[in-house]
Amino acid sequence: MNSEESSKDRRQSPRVGAEFRVKYSTLDQLVLAFTKNISQGGLFIATETLLPVNAVVNLVISLPNEGGDISCIARVVRAMGPDDGDPNRKHGLALEFLDVSWESIEQIEAYISQTVAREAEASMLPRFDCKLSVLVVDDDKTYRENAVRILAEQGHEVTWAEDGLKGLAACLRKPPDLVLSDVNMPLMDGWNFLRTIRARPSLSSTIVIFQTTLNSEKERLKGYQLGVDDYLAKPYSAEELLLRIERLFQRSAARSQNTSKKALRGDIEQVSLPTVLSMLELEQKTGVVVVVGPRLCRLYVREGRPMNIEMDGVTGKSPLNLVVELFRWTKGQFEFAPQDIHSADELQISMQGLLMEAARLTDEENR
Predict the structure, then answer these.
(1) Does 151 lie in the same domain as 214?
(2) What CATH number is attached to the domain comprising 233?
(3) What does the pLDDT average to over 158-186?
(4) Which of 14, 44, 106, 253 has the largest count of CB atoms under 10 Å?
(5) Cross-sheet strand order for the sheet of 230-233
(6) Cα 340 from Cα 287, distance rounded (Å)
(7) What is the domain count for the chain?
(8) pLDDT tens digit string along 245-264?
(9) Is the pTM of the predicted complex or chain greater than 0.70?
(10) Mean per-residue pLDDT over the chain, rounded
(11) Which range marks the domain in which residue 330 is found?
């Protein structure tokens, strides 16, 4: 905040001793001044020009970012200068408003509320450090154009295709950072489009999001097995799309470089953990299921059989009780990374037996 004295024609009102303009350059400065002083009917002016107590002044309060001016008459209730006895105190005048109406106070309150709301809304839209090249593949013109508009407004380089075959050609001409694709499309559907992308070395690490109306776990698991990075249910908002993209790129940046490219990844909001584990048993997979939820959990699997489970920050619970707690999680991400497992068989049960026993214990707890 800064203030400046104006020598505007004081002869217009002989009782007015000076005119001051108080400028707030940021919303934070205005909020602090409003809650501490303005809403209480006064203001402190930092100035070397001191006036006697009861002197009357014109006061103009300038809101930040060209938010307008509030004019009023005020009187000096205290003057603080070099003779005030405190060398650390700012020199200036404590003013009391004489004619500030409730409308003026409400105008400032409304300005603060509206500005805070705009800033909060803007903060919900992710801002990437770098701009992305994005390909939108969808035969539905409405959804396609909506996605293109949302991403282009964020400054990303966006191209589009109306089916998987044209989308594949666009990827081969210029590999994108991100593909946002529908599943049910003519000529080449999303499944074959994804299979073909993942089979190309130049496109194998491209992030792919399916935007779709599919909602069965079987179909979603199929997508994760083929290598899709996330699902986005139609219809969706701009905020949801941008937050999904931000989360995927943050996860991608944080992922260790030696993580297997064949890892199965997904969201437990989209595919339940029992479904994932049943698939691992069916295909007799060996590796580690890492789940990031309320805690970090690792489930070790050998040839489709559960070997052991570890949950950070939890001690004293049996492996079976840890599985029951894991299955309670409704939010988080899972990743299965194939690798050799040397852990002893602490669970002593098949995968289907584990799922049935965990379900039984959960039912007993809920009774």
Answers:
(1) yes
(2) 3.40.50.2300
(3) 91
(4) 44
(5) 157-161, 133-137, 178-181, 207-212, 230-233
(6) 6
(7) 3
(8) 888 887 766 554 444 445 67
(9) no
(10) 82
(11) 258-367
